[in-house]
Specification:
single chain, binds adenosine-5'-triphosphate, 2 domains, transmembrane, about 600 residues, transmembrane helix, alpha/beta, 4-stranded antiparallel sheet, membrane, Rossmann fold, ABC transporter involved in vitamin B12 uptake, BtuC
Length: about 600
């Protein structure tokens, strides 16, 4: 086994040893039950975390999967005589199916609407199970062969079983974190549109996440039924279940395997003790504890205790890393704005992208009107025009963010109009954004690797493609830096690298030079030129004409959504209509 794997296993084994030891030493059955509950809620918190912690889509409805699992295991035992040893895995399958069924319609909703819809499922199930007359279903006692039916007199066995379940779920979560699965979920959380544009099929990954999360919640529900012995709709579909899953994860730390474990270890004993001591006098005291926990977390550590501690103790490590990267040499370029020397061989004649009669309206506004042009392999095409001329809308139509009302977008002759962004990315269209869309908490390398998955069969290949793309834009020295701390130029180059990592045939660059100082413009242009020298086909939107005339082979000029004219830089800069509509008199004076 390699060192990194051993190192990643060490904390899990340490936690398991501590919980295992505590479970073994406890001789009071109440404390044994408490420990088992801590582990059960840690498991459910991990299930919640897998969906909501990594994708950012908050679920208020995990009780739906949990409750179905609980009833599934008990009813299979009651009616089919099925042991929970089989019933619990089957509850996992039931939870997975429920996850998929819930995910398919619900992922069409965004933000708060997703959270609200998720709230409805367990409530609906609660009423359905009451209506079915399943108010109280008891686990049948099996006196003949109790162990075969997961019935033990020694309460510690349940704690050990719960610990085993927790370890399996930690292992699954770790696997998700370390593969493209986890990277895709994090990318969705940080910027779903950018993730799609980078070739990630966001709907497919979200469905996988909710299916896996539902499977875990279903299995945990089945196990919970075994320890409770009696299942009621309120106990397994109730609001408190979903709230508990969410709170332990949010309190401990979202988006990390440790969060739900920390959260459950602190919150469950507190709320259970209060419930036992004060529940008679103050019914619902658990809800109050969770309410206070949520408020405390929001105020003190919005992302949970784990991240707060990590930020505090990790600060020194971060400062060291910053000191190391501060010394990084700048991108090796001349940096001056001068007419660039003769360039790469002329573009060949193969048409890579053909746009025919594309139109798009927003209500009454015709943002893009019957636009058509061709782009040849190795060509740099500049799209220019006044503000609001429809340039970004055109890009959105080319990379699938928008569906044209009419017209065709032919990539190598195949009409791709209206296909999803990740499909267009796979077809070879990479893009960057006018308003940058970095995955701010990820490092440069992680940001870029997201773009590589579309072409890579393995995670190793994706890392290689990403490293290559980072080197091509000259960011190798800052590859390990968190994107949130980069300069505008570095962010622009990182976005370029992310698009490059997917080995696009055509790069759509949307105002890549915006917000850059004079020297930085020269640096970035140099990088774009180098890409063109390597026969990359580039379509670029840019307002900085001084830079554009030196860079592009041909211009398409848009005005009021339509093509005003197209031609070489020389002809365009002398064209009266272009001067009037866009360049203005100042340009003529300057030129
Ligand atoms: N989603 C939308 N809904 C409604 N109107 C939109 C939408 N997106 C763009 N528009 C409008 O369409 C027109 C074209 O906008 P677009 O952003 O494509 O122009 P642009 O040429 O990229 O401008 P700029 O140079 O300022 O970025 C504008 O009038 C804009 O207000």
């Amino acid at each position: 086994m390699t060192m990194p794997v051993l190192r990643s296993l060490a904390p899990v084994l340490a936690i398991a040893a501590v919980f295992g030891l505590v479970a073994t030493l406890l001789d009071n059955s109440y404390h044994q039950l408490m420990l088992t509950l801590v582990l059960v809620w840690a498991c459910l918190g991990l299930s919640w975390n897998l969906l909501s912690g990594y994708t950012g889509l908050v679920s208020f409805g995990h009780a739906a999967f949990f409750g179905l699992g609980a009833y599934g295991t008990v009813l299979a035992h009651v009616h089919l005589g099925l042991t929970p040893w089989i019933g619990i895995p089957l509850s996992g399958v039931l939870g997975a199916a429920a996850g998929l069924l819930v995910g398919l319609p619900t992922f069409r909703l965004r933000g708060h609407y997703f959270a609200l819809a998720m709230l409805a499922y367990p409530l609906a199930l609660l009423y359905v199970f009451e209506w079915l007359g399943l108010q109280e279903v008891s686990v049948p006692m099996e006196r003949e062969a109790p162990a075969a039916y997961m019935q033990f007199r020694d309460g510690r066995v349940y704690a050990w079983l719960a610990l085993g379940l927790l370890i399996v779920i930690i292992a699954v979560t770790r696997w998700v974190e370390r593969t493209r699965f986890g990277m895709a979920l994090l990318a969705i959380k940080q910027n779903e549109a950018a993730a799609e544009a980078a070739g990630i099929d966001t709907l497919a990954w979200k469905l996988r996440a909710i299916t896996l999360s539902g499977a875990i919640a279903g299995a945990v529900g089945g196990f919970y039924a075994v320890i409770l012995l009696v299942v009621t709709p309120a106990a397994v579909f109730g609001m408190l279940v979903s709230a508990q899953a969410l709170t332990v994860a949010m309190f401990g730390g979202v988006g990390t395997v440790w969060g739900p474990i920390i959260g459950a270890t602190i919150l469950i004993p507190v709320s259970e003790t209060l419930h036992a001591e004060l529940g008679g006098m103050l019914p619902g005291i658990q809800g109050v504890v969770y309410g206070i926990a949520i408020v405390a977390v929001i105020l003190v550590a919005p992302e949970g205790i784990y991240w707060k501690l990590r930020d505090r103790f990790g600060r020194r490590a971060k400062a060291d890393a910053a000191a190391r990267t501060a010394a990084a040499p700048p991108v090796p370029v001349d940096g001056t704005v001068q007419r660039l020397p003769v360039r790469r061989p002329p573009p060949d004649t193969a048409v890579v992208l053909e746009v025919r009669g594309v139109s798009k309206s927003f209500g009454g506004l015709r943002a893009v009107r019957d636009v058509g042009f061709e782009v040849r392999r190795g060509e740099i095409l500049g799209i220019i025009g006044p503000n609001g001329a429809g340039k970004t809308t055109l890009f959105n139509l080319l990379n699938g963010f928008l569906t044209p009302d009419a017209g065709r977008v032919l990539v190598h002759g195949a009409d791709m109009a209206g296909r999803k962004p990740h499909v267009l990315c796979r077809a070879g269209i990479g893009r960057t954004f006018q308003v940058m869309r970095p995955f701010a908490r990820m490092t440069v390398a992680e940001n870029v690797v997201i773009g590589a998955y579309v072409r890579a069969a393995t995670d190793g290949e994706a890392r290689r493609l990403a490293a290559d793309a980072i080197a091509r834009v000259g960011l190798s020295d800052v590859a390990d830096r968190v994107a949130g701390g980069l300069t505008t130029k570095q962010l622009r180059l990182m976005e370029l690298a992310r698009a490059l990592a997917g080995k696009p045939e055509i790069l759509l660059l949307d105002e890549t030079l915006a917000g850059l100082g004079h020297a930085d413009v020269g640096d970035v242009i140099e990088v774009v030129r180098r890409l063109a020298d390597e026969a990359m086909t580039i379509v670029i939107i840019e307002h900085t004409m001084q830079a554009m005339v030196r860079l592009v082979d041909r211009f398409v000029v848009l005005d009021h959504g339509a093509v005003l004219t197209e031609g070489t830089p020389d002809s365009i800069t002398r064209n009266e209509r272009v001067i009037e509509a866009y360049l203005g008199k100042k340009w003529t004076a300057h030129a």
